[in-house]
Amino acid sequence: MGDVLDIRDAIWLTDLPDHLPRKNGKKQNLCTGFRWAGRGILAGGKRVKLRTIRIGGRLATRKTWLAEFMERLSNPQLADDSLTPSQIKREHHVAERQLVAMGI
Q: Is the pLDDT of residue 82 over 80?
């Protein structure tokens, strides 16, 4: 199970600026990781979010997830195309109506 997060591999979001390149000689803002995890970044028309896990009430990520996030920003076609719950519900209703119209 490669996705299991070993606590030793965790990067707390509060420590994330220490793992990012400096911008104009300054560390990234502390809120950056939380923004990437929550709201994400729009890249190529798709919302890309940093994958996180909650450990003891704190949010953490891992180096591989950070690398995947950066890769998806660089290549928007790799961004997750998963649907939101409301989109799934809407598509389900459309499919039901089509089946009823077909007599199934």
A: no
